[in-house]
Write a structure and sequence with these properties.
The protein has helices spanning about 15-25, 65-80, 140-150, 165-175, 195-205, 265-270, 305-325, 405-415; strands at about 5-10, 35, 50-55, 65, 80-85, 85-90, 95-100, 105-115, 120, 140, 160, 180-185, 210, 215-220, 225-230, 245-250, 250-255, 260, 290-295, 335-340, 345, 350, 360-370, 370-380, 385-395, 400-405, 420-425. The chain is of the alpha/beta class. β3 and β4 form a beta hairpin. The longest helix is centred in the last third of the chain and has 21 residues, at about 305-325. The protein binds flavin-adenine dinucleotide.
Length: about 425
């Protein structure tokens, strides 16, 4: 292996997060940016999302996934950004040394700053412990999306979907449009885990039933899936004896959650948040390791790609600032952000008052624990309410964002306040 190459900024992952981070870092003055993608093309998971609905916030248009990605890929091509495709980052150290595998050879790079933008992966059957044999016909919804949209292969004809996450809902519609019969979607929780707009447009509009508080308790079939046994669950999510029902099908699609892709972060020793599964970050998207940033679904699973792009652009601007000044992550007067009543998690976990330089404000992104109507999201600083927002509807599937004014935050920090809490009233 030749001597390690030195690069200023290395971005791992060429999906919407990596693309937006590269563009923002370049526009903020970085001249040495390397974007690494393991696939043969840029765009990430958007390449297989051929339905529309992307970019409503960012562009005010309903684009398909590839159309949304194409706008960013074009910009990256026009800027001073080096792109390495078919290249996988195998290892990352706390000192930002990377080991890559590219066309059968290994390479090492020493980077001044690294952006983790590896996206997320789907929870598969192994995470569910459903009894039964291992017949063919059981896929994650994303794998089925790839078969249908990228390879032109139909995974089956008679479909059951377990979990009402957005990818499962989108695939219920997609499989129907491709001529399959979707028997039903079964959801363990008493409410859907997908966006309300997807329930309407992908299930209701196509007459596909959604059974809440119901799960699959057995997979039936040896060579090929023959059916599944479903059961209602009680309030502690345990199957209710006697409520079992056999549903004939040849295909089971799993849409039971996404997990940030963070093996590299874990190996490097980046502190992770046990709730999000992604790194703990500050308001610059910098992790607990100096010079290692994270954004997009590798940081926390987003509901809309528009927010992925926005967050990644902020990370890119702060990466440029970091490599320009090597501003330490230690400020001595940090504000700790924590989830309060009714909140599952908040990102970022820390605000560093000496880095509140972004005139665009400091967004706090969070998800609620349960659906509610007419809730008020409050941000408290050492017990004092400093921001509040009314929401007609709050749902765990929808990410909520409250943007704090950076000047106000500086004043709060200068007063010696050290905590922020987000809660629902
Ligand atoms: C199967 C699936 C379907 C989805 N469908 C929808 C949808 O229909 N609508 C919607 O709004 N959202 C959807 N999402 C959410 C979507 O992932 C996000 O909106 C957005 O794509 C996240 O952007 P990202 O850049 O963080 O991640 P990604 O788009 O996942 O991009 C991450 C990139 O990093 C690369 N990578 C990972 N590890 C490495 C490594 N070690 N070395 C090099 N490259 C690496 C990957 O190949 C990938 O290209 C879906 C997610 C999944 C998993």
């Amino acid at each position: 292996m030749s001597a390690p190459a030195k690069r200023e900024v290395v971005i791992i992952g060429g999906g919407p997060a990596g693309l937006a981070a590269a563009i923002a870092a370049s526009e903020a003055g970085c001249r040495d940016i390397l974007l690494i993608e393991r696939d043969r093309r840029l765009g990430g998971i958007l390449n297989q999302c051929i339905h529309d609905g992307f970019g409503l916030h960012r562009f005010g248009e309903a684009l398909s996934g590839p159309e949304y990605a194409a706008r960013y890929i074009k910009l990256v091509g026009e800027l001073d950004v080096d792109v390495m495709l078919n290249t996988i980052v195998l290892n990352l150290s706390a000192d930002r040394d990377l080991l890559l595998s590219r066309e059968g050879t290994m390479e090492e790079i020493e980077a001044s700053a690294v952006v983790l933008a590896m996206g997320c992966r789907e929870r598969a059957r192994g995470a569910l412990s459903i009894p039964g044999h291992r017949p063919s016909g059981v896929y994650t919804a994303g794998a089925a999306q790839n078969f249908v949209n990228m390879e032109n292969i139909m995974p089956g004809n008679r479909v059951v979907i377990l979990g009402s996450g957005d990818i499962g809902l989108i695939m219920a519609r997609r499989m129907t449009l491709e001529g399959a019969h979707v028997e039903a979607v079964f959801e363990l929780l008493p409410y859907s885990s997908g966006l309300p707009r997807n329930i309407q447009q992908c299930l209701v509009d196509y007459g596909i039933p959604l059974h809440l508080s119901t799960t699959v308790v057995e997979i039936v079939g040896m060579g090929r899936l023959e059916g599944v046994v479903t059961a209602k669950v009680d309030e502690r999510r345990r199957p209710i004896p006697g409520s079992e029902n056999f549903v004939q099908c040849d295909t089971l699609l799993l849409s039971v959650g996404l997990i940030p892709e963070n093996e590299l972060a874990r190996e490097a020793g980046v502190p992770l948040d046990p709730v999000t599964g992604g790194p703990k970050v500050d308001n610059r998207c910098m992790t607990g390791l100096d010079g290692i940033f994270s954004c997009g679904n590798a940081l926390h699973v987003h509901d809309l790609v528009d927010w992925v792009s926005e967050e990644a652009a902020r990370a890119g601007r702060f990466v440029a600032e970091y490599v320009g000044s090597r501003a330490s992550s230690k400020s001595g007067r940090d504000i700790t952000v924590s989830p309060g009543r009714g909140i599952r998690y908040v990102v970022p976990e820390t605000i560093r008052w000496n880095t509140l330089t972004d005139g665009r404000g400091t967004p706090l992104c969070f998800r609620v624990l349960e659906p509610s109507r007419n809730g008020v999201a409050e941000v408290l600083s050492d017990g004092v309410v400093i921001a509040e927002e009314k929401h007609g509807r709050l749902h765990p599937a929808e990410m909520v964002r409250v943007t704090l004014d950076s000047k106000k935050m500086r004043r709060i920090a200068e007063k010696g306040r050290t905590t922020l809490e987000v809660r629902i009233r």
